[in-house]
Design brief:
GO molecular function: kinesin binding
Radius of gyration: 23 Å
GO cellular component, one term: endosome membrane
Keywords: Cytoplasm
Strand content: 25-35%
CATH superfamily of the largest domain: Pleckstrin-homology domain (PH domain)/Phosphotyrosine-binding domain (PTB)
InterPro entries: PH_domain-containing_M2 (IPR053015), PH_NISCH_C (IPR057714), PH_PLEKHM2 (IPR057288)
Order of helices and strands: HHHEEEEEEEHHEEHEEEEEE
CATH architecture of the largest domain: Roll
Number of domains: 2
Subcellular location: Cytoplasm
Length: 348
C-alpha cells in the first residue's frame, strides 16, 4: 500500500476547481502529488496508523450548524473516517458559531504558518447519506447536529464516484447486519400499505448505513412549487421541469481598484416557459431525526424568474468547464410592441 494506480488517481483528483478561491494552506495541499500526498495524509491528518487513504475530492461543503456559510474543502475518505480539510477563514466567518470549533491554535498569527481546520466524521458514527436531486449534492448524517455535512459537488460524476468509494469502505466495517424482514416484496419494502404513497428510495447497506435517493414525487413537488411562482399558469398538467442544476450567479463589482466578481450559489430550474433561480436549503431537508422544530426557512426561495419568450440572446464564454453563460432578457414589463419605439432600447 498504496498501489501506483491509487496514487495516480488521487493525484489526478487533487485539483481545486478553477472558479473557487482557497487559502494558502489548501493551495499547499493541492500542490502535493503522489507519495508526498499520501505521506502528508498519514503525518498530518490520519488518526490511526493502519488506516488507508482511499479517495480524495474537492468540494464546497455546508454544515448543519452554519447553514449560510459555504466553504471550500478537501474531502479525504479513508478506511476509518471522512476528513474535511477546511479553509482556515471559515472559523472566523461565523463568529456566533465559534463554540462549534476548537480554537486552541487561533493565536498562531505568524504569516509563515498557515492553519487549516480538519473536521472528522468517523465511519462508525455515520448513519445515513441523502443524495440530492440529479446527484448534484449529497448530505452525510451522523448522530448529532454537529455531524451533518452537505457536499455541494455540483457534478453527478463526483457524487457517484464518492458514493461508490464510501460503500466500498463501509463494507470493510465489522457490523452485525440488520435482521431481514419476513416478507420482502416490492410493496412492503418501498411503500406504505396504508396510504399507497411511495417513500423515498432507500438502500440499507450491510454496514447499516442508509443511502436515501429522491423519488419522482420530489420532482413533482418541486414542479408544483415552481408553478405557484408563475403568474397565470393555466395548464398545470403539462407543466414539467426540463433542467435542474446547481450553479453560481455572478455579481460583478466595478469601480474598485480591480474589477471583482462574487459567486452566489443558486439553483437554476428551466421549464418549457420560464427560467428560475432559487435559493435552496441543501442542509436542513429532509429533517434529521433529532430536529425539534422545522428549519427557519423554506427549502426553496425564489430569487429570480424570467419568461423564455423574453429571452433575447445567450452569451457563451469560451473558457473550459465551468462554462459561463449570460442570459440577456428583453423583459419590458407589459409593453405592447406597437407602443413608442423611439425609447432607448439598448441603453442601460
Amino acid at each position: 500500500y498504496p498501489s501506483e494506480f491509487l496514487m495516480q488517481k488521487i493525484t489526478e483528483d487533487n485539483q481545486i476547481p478553477v472558479h473557487l478561491h482557497v487559502s494558502v494552506s489548501l493551495q499547499y495541499v493541492a500542490g502535493l502529488k503522489g507519495r508526498a500526498l499520501v505521506e502528508f495524509f498519514h503525518s498530518n491528518i490520519a488518526e490511526v496508523e493502519n488506516e488507508e487513504l482511499r479517495h480524495l475530492m474537492w468540494s464546497s461543503v455546508l454544515f448543519y450548524k452554519t447553514p449560510s456559510v459555504e466553504v471550500m474543502s478537501c474531502v479525504l475518505l479513508s478506511t476509518k473516517a471522512i476528513y474535511f480539510l477546511l479553509d482556515d477563514s471559515f472559523v472566523h466567518a461565523d463568529e456566533h458559531q465559534s463554540d462549534f470549533w476548537n480554537k486552541e491554535n487561533s493565536d498562531c498569527e505568524n504569516n509563515s504558518f498557515h492553519l487549516s481546520c480538519c473536521f472528522v466524521l468517523k465511519l462508525n458514527d455515520l448513519q445515513s447519506v441523502n443524495v440530492g436531486l440529479f446527484d448534484q449534492y449529497f448530505r452525510i448524517t451522523g448522530h448529532s447536529a454537529d455531524h451533518i455535512v452537505t457536499c455541494l459537488t455540483r457534478d453527478s460524476y463526483n457524487t457517484h464516484t464518492f458514493i461508490q468509494q464510501l460503500m466500498a469502505v463501509l463494507s470493510l466495517l465489522a457490523r452485525t447486519p440488520s435482521p431481514e424482514p419476513v416478507d420482502k416484496d416490492f410493496y412492503s419494502e418501498f411503500g406504505s400499505k396504508n396510504t399507497g404513497k411511495m417513500e423515498n428510495y432507500e438502500l440499507i447497506h450491510s454496514s447499516r448505513v442508509k443511502f436515501i435517493y429522491p423519488n419522482e414525487e420530489e420532482i413533482g413537488d418541486l414542479a408544483f412549487l415552481v408553478a405557484e411562482k408563475m403568474d397565470g399558469l393555466t395548464n398545470l398538467p403539462s407543466f414539467n421541469i426540463l433542467l435542474y442544476v446547481l450553479a453560481f450567479q455572478v455579481n460583478h463589482f466595478e469601480g474598485s481598484a480591480q474589477n471583482t466578481s462574487s459567486l452566489q450559489p443558486k439553483t437554476l430550474i428551466l421549464t418549457s416557459s420560464d427560467l428560475f433561480l432559487f435559493d435552496e436549503d441543501y442542509i436542513s431537508y429532509p429533517l434529521p431525526e433529532f430536529a425539534k422544530e422545522p428549519p427557519k426557512r423554506d427549502k426553496y426561495q425564489l430569487a429570480d424568474g424570467r419568461r423564455i419568450r423574453d429571452l433575447d440572446r445567450v452569451l457563451m464564454g469560451y473558457q473550459t468547464y465551468p462554462q459561463a453563460l449570460t442570459f440577456v432578457f428583453d423583459d419590458v414589463q407589459n409593453q405592447d410592441l406597437m407602443q413608442n419605439l423611439t425609447l432607448d432600447h439598448f441603453g442601460e
